[in-house]
Amino acid sequence: MLKIECCGLTSLQIKQIIEKQFKGEAEPFEHPDMIAAKNVKNGESDYYLGSCMTGGGGSIATAIMVLGYGKCLTVSRQGSCPNEKQIRHMVYSGDHKAFGFVKSHTEQVVPALVRALIDKSEGRPE
C-alpha cells in the first residue's frame, strides 16, 4: 500500500479523495509541507502531493528544497489542467516523488495521479 503525503491548500480534500477512492491501495497522511517532504526523503512515505495557487510554487517549493528539483514535478498550472492520459504519462516518464498542482484542479488531478502512482508501483504498463 502506498503512503501518500497530502499537503498544501487542499490537503484535507486530497486526503478525503484518496480515502474514498483508493481504500486498501493507498494510505493518505495530512502533514505540513516540510514534515511531509522529510517523510518522503526518509522513506517513511512514498509520495508527496501538494496544491497551491499556481501549481509550481507554494507547496511544491518545499518539496523541491528537501527532495531536489529532479524528484519533483508540476502536474498542472493556472489555465492548464492535463487529462488522465497526460497525467499517467507524466508519472511514468520519470522517478518523481513529489507532485504539485493548482488547488482548483484537485478533483481532476488527484484521482488520475494516484491511480497512475499505484499502477506504476505495481508494475502495470503505461
Briefly characterize the structure.
This protein is an alpha/beta fold and 126 residues long. The protein has helices at 11-21, 33-41, 58-67, 84-92, 106-121; strands at 2-8, 26-30, 47-52, 72-74, 98-102. The protein has a single domain, classed as 3-Layer(aba) Sandwich (Ribose 5-phosphate Isomerase B, Chain: A).
Describe this structure in words.
The protein is α/β, with parallel strands linked by helices and 126 residues long. The protein has a single domain (2-121), classed as 3-Layer(aba) Sandwich (Ribose 5-phosphate Isomerase B, Chain: A), CATH 3.40.1400.10. It is 44% helix and 21% strand. It has five helices and five strands. The protein has a five-stranded parallel sheet, sandwiched between helices. Helix 2 packs parallel to helix 3 (58-67). It starts with a strand and ends in a 5-residue tail after the last helix.
Low-confidence stretches: none
Structural class, from secondary structure content?
Answer: alpha/beta
CATH class: Alpha Beta
- Biggest sheet strand order reads 2-1-3-5-4
The biggest sheet, with number of strands, parallel, antiparallel or mixed sense and barrel status, is: 5 strands, parallel
Molecular shape = globular
CATH fold title: Ribose 5-phosphate Isomerase B, Chain: A
